Amino acid sequence: MAQKSYIFEVERGREAKDGQPSAGPVYRSFFAKDGFPAPIEGLDSCWDVFRMSVEKYPGNPMLGRREFVNGKAGKYVWRSYKEVYDLVMKVGNSIRSCGFGEGVRCGIYGANCAEWIISMEACNAHGLYCVPLYDTLGAGAIEFIISHAEISITFVEEKKIPELLKTFPSAAKHLKTLVSFGKVTPEQREEVQKFGLAIYSWDEFLQVGQDQKFDLPMKKKSDICTIMYTSGTTGDPKGVMISNESIITLLAGVKCLLESVNESDVKLLLEDIAQLKPSIFCAVPRVLDRIYSGLTQKISSGGFIKKMMFNFAYSYKFHNLKKGQEHVEASPVFDKIVFDKVKQALGGNVRIILSGAAPLSTHVESFLRVVACAHILQGYGLTETCAGSFVSLPNEISMLGTVGPPVPNVDVRLESVPEMGYDALSSTPRGEICMRGNTVFSGYYKREDLTKEVLIDGWFHTGDIGEWQPDGSMKIIDRKKNIFKLSQGEYVAVENLENIYGVVSAIDSIWIYGNSFESFLVAVINPNAQALERWAKENGVTGDFNSLCENSRAKDYILGELAKVAKEKKLKGFEFIKAVHLDPVPFDMERDLTTPTYKKKRPQLLKYYQNIIDKMYKSGSKPSA
């Protein structure tokens, strides 16, 4: 029986011409077979999304914060939609009282909190461009964004005020008003006022516009809602302009998708989840990796009978899932007696776990699909495409390791990349993922040159290399710019190799390096602590995790595991890793090695590990393939 495909062709592909690479056919989601989903009636802007929710659910809880009693986290305390709305109107009146209105850029700097959302909605209400200043960005990037976007007013988390002050006097040329989410110290007030700025605590700001009332401006779909600066792996951040239309188009597509698949029905994270009991849980892969590591460690430390029971239950359910059974039917008995503890650890109500922002390891995804008693979906998108553009579907085990088919409001095609050997017109289509539709961004703020580089004839070129699967799902296999040539003239698609080697369960993360002056590849690896310690115990190697990472036998073990995968995947000899360095400290933002969404910053990784790379090449360690 032919496999069902969740996409259909709307335009034929084209051969290479006029210096342009060939392009594959244009596809749409199967769920858009009757046309793109119509916008939700009454939704013309992001403000309408919030306003209509308040009208529909005024008494429902909207924003919650956990109380801390004697240093311990307690229950969530909630504000209703109506209570949040009233605060939004107060903040909006205060913003307007300070002289800021439509088109003014408003920064919001800090971690997620109720005040962040309230400030954003106030911007949406009065037509200000909301410019998120991610709390993971350093002072340098914050200074650049404030100056580039010409931000006039900024809301800032109390503990981030000292970081913001580091951007003065440069940022003070544009900033006029600062609003703390909490308090303001006398010293901070004096420092800010030196530069002629006004600064308010949160409670003070709520009173600024209390005697005034401002009409809300009419908002159009074409109006810019937010300018989101991408952290970027190289160069200065780029300001992605996203319109109201992009966001409401995305919402219409998500609504259509959910209805089509019948889904109507850090340390304290798991404690928060258990207390909050969410039904939909969105996470980045690193969070799911930690959940996976914690669960596998508990299983490994259990008794022989428990481990045997778990392994049997896991194999049984996974086998049934691969046969096409839905997850609720694959093993209801084992769900109750074996996997229910995992479900309860996630609050007991989770139906969907959505992973995004970076690739989720296939072994983590398959493990959670079995034990979490929930749908594990992987999504893909960029800031420039208003986030989610692809998402895998519930109960489709064939989509394991993919990001699923496109959502039903975009057109997608692959474009050949001949220099990397990717052909969009081959029997297995591979190429750069290109998208068009109303979810695509309006351009880079003040950077028409960069906009023209990626927006060509209405198609946004993502820079990611994808491979269409027979069921219509997309597999991300490479990055267009992450390619280099070894000294013997062989091209290496490094991100593709990292995805292949990333399936090794003994490693958490891998960065592969090579250049045109060397003939082989080397890698810096963050090993999985539990796996490495288990190997050490089984092989009589002593020492803590840090010392194991320095152990030559441990390095040989990791190289052996990498070689197994390389042989299994039939990699070419020059694609084998010949030397490794094991770093017990994960690649992180503190050392500027990753972006806030955990994408590797390759130039920074090279700079940080340069001496180690030089030593690996100097030693010329080349285990046989």
UniProtKB/TrEMBL annotation:
Protein name per UniProt: Long-chain-fatty-acid--CoA ligase
GO cellular component terms listed in the entry, alphabetical order: endoplasmic reticulum; membrane
EC number in record: 6.2.1.3
Functional description taken from the UniProt entry: Catalyzes the conversion of long-chain fatty acids to their active form acyl-CoAs for both synthesis of cellular lipids, and degradation via beta-oxidation.
Family: Belongs to the ATP-dependent AMP-binding enzyme family.
Keyword annotations from UniProtKB, A to Z: ATP-binding, Fatty acid metabolism, Ligase, Lipid metabolism, Nucleotide-binding
Keyword Electron transport annotated: no
Highest rank taxon of the organism: Eukaryota
AMP-dependent synthetase/ligase domain segment(s): 53-255
Catalytic reactions of this protein: a long-chain fatty acid + ATP + CoA = a long-chain fatty acyl-CoA + AMP + diphosphate
One MF term in the entry's GO annotations: long-chain fatty acid-CoA ligase activity
